[in-house]
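hiii so um. not sure if this is the right channel but i have a protein structure encoded as tokens and i wanna go backwards to a sequence. like what aa goes where. can anyone help
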């Protein structure tokens, strides 16, 4: 619905970033703007107007949208990525030799699994809301050509969703690798168009390297394994991402980093996480303080607001924009190391200082559609590390920031 001048008719209870920043003046400035691909303001805001429980409410259709609609998008970016200015320079560093991350848990006492992923989109194409069938299939062809040329531990198989047989689909479901059609937020943005054409999953033989093709982003590239060898997981991911980047080229902006249709996923587009068993540390009065000081976030393994299972928590980096990939992983590693040290200390003393309340969910975390859905999570928003039975939570703050409980962007 809209007012007489076309300005959206926002409900009184709409709390989205879109509503806060799309003033009548900004609307008047942008309502007739169109990018070279034909992206309009209506395209950008349709999901947020149709789904007024969104937290963000905008999806960008192409690289040019970030400049053409800057008067709306820039304030949203700066509000979400608190402390970052769109005039700042975003660094990039995917060199594993720059990471200081010896295994913090060589005896596998605490870390159950480790997973690191990035989102990427190919240079020269629209972002997923504006990809037509032919372009999407072309992206799939280009990407799978590179994926299927990978050698060594990255060597694997691509499974197209279109025409997939039941046995293959069931195996991918059992592995928590199969993704499903996007939710109503993605649907209203146009990301589900021609489903499932041009979409699929690639994974290596050991199931420690996985790539989703043409889901919310053109590429979701994931490295994962059991245990706490964070350096090995990052090294594997870096090898894959660097080769894909060299052969395909990704959309990158000096100020905003790697581009995505969702402004929450700018910068590194990275989520680095572990599932870790810390029943004593998580009950300690300083747990939240330690997480904040180390720029990490903690939540139950089934998503934000979920309870811990057996003292196991999902720990991940908070920041994405304004720091490099190495720094994102270093944040997570340093925080995990501190939590393990606390857990060991409390176990040795056997007199933990506990708070009466469970640790609060991190203020910037966000459940994924799969993690938050009432239906059984047969499709994980983030594929879990190999052999982890429970599907992990999706990425933080991808749909919204608390205390709102709606969703608007998936970050795997």
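sure thing!! here u go:
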């Amino acid at each position: 619905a809209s007012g007489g001048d076309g300005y959206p008719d926002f409900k009184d209870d709409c709390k989205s970033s879109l509503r806060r920043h799309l003033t009548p003046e900004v609307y008047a400035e942008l309502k007739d703007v169109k990018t070279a691909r034909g992206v309009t303001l209506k395209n950008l805001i349709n999901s947020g107007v149709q789904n007024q429980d969104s937290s963000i409410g905008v999806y960008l259709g192409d690289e040019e949208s970030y400049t053409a609609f800057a008067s709306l998008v820039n304030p949203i970016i700066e509000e979400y990525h608190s402390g970052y200015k769109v005039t700042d320079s975003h660094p990039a560093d995917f060199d594993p030799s720059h990471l200081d991350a010896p295994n913090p848990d060589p005896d596998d006492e605490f870390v159950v699994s480790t997973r690191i992923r990035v989102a990427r989109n190919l240079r020269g194409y629209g972002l997923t809301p504006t990809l037509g069938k032919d372009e999407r299939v072309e992206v799939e062809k280009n990407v799978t050509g590179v994926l299927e040329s990978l050698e060594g531990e990255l060597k694997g198989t691509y499974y197209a969703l279109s025409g997939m047989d039941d046995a293959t689909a069931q195996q991918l479901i059992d592995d928590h690798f199969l993704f499903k059609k996007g939710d109503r937020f993605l649907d209203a943005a146009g990301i589900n168009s021609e489903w499932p054409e041009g979409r699929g999953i690639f994974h290596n033989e050991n199931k420690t390297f996985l790539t989703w093709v043409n889901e919310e982003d053109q590429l979701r590239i994931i490295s994962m394994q059991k245990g706490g060898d964070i350096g090995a997981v990052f090294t594997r991911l870096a090898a894959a991402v660097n080769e894909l980047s060299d052969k395909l080229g990704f959309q990158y902006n000096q100020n905003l980093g790697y581009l995505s249709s969702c402004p929450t996923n700018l910068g590194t587009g990275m989520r680095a996480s572990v599932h870790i068993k810390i029943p004593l540390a998580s009950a300690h009065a300083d747990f939240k303080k330690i997480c904040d000081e180390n720029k990490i976030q903690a939540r139950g393994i089934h998503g934000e607001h979920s309870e811990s299972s057996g003292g196991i928590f999902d720990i991940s980096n908070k920041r994405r924009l304004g720091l490099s990939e190495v720094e994102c992983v270093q944040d997570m590693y340093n925080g995990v190391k501190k939590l393990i040290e606390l857990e060991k200390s409390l176990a040795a003393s056997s007199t933990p200082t506990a708070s009466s309340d469970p640790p609060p969910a991190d203020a910037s975390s966000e459940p994924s559609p799969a993690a938050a859905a009432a239906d059984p999570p047969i499709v994980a928003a983030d594929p879990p590390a190999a052999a982890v039975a429970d599907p992990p939570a999706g990425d933080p703050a991808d749909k919204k920031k608390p205390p709102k409980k709606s969703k608007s962007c998936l970050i795997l």
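oh and The CA atoms of residues 137 and 198 lie 5 Å apart.
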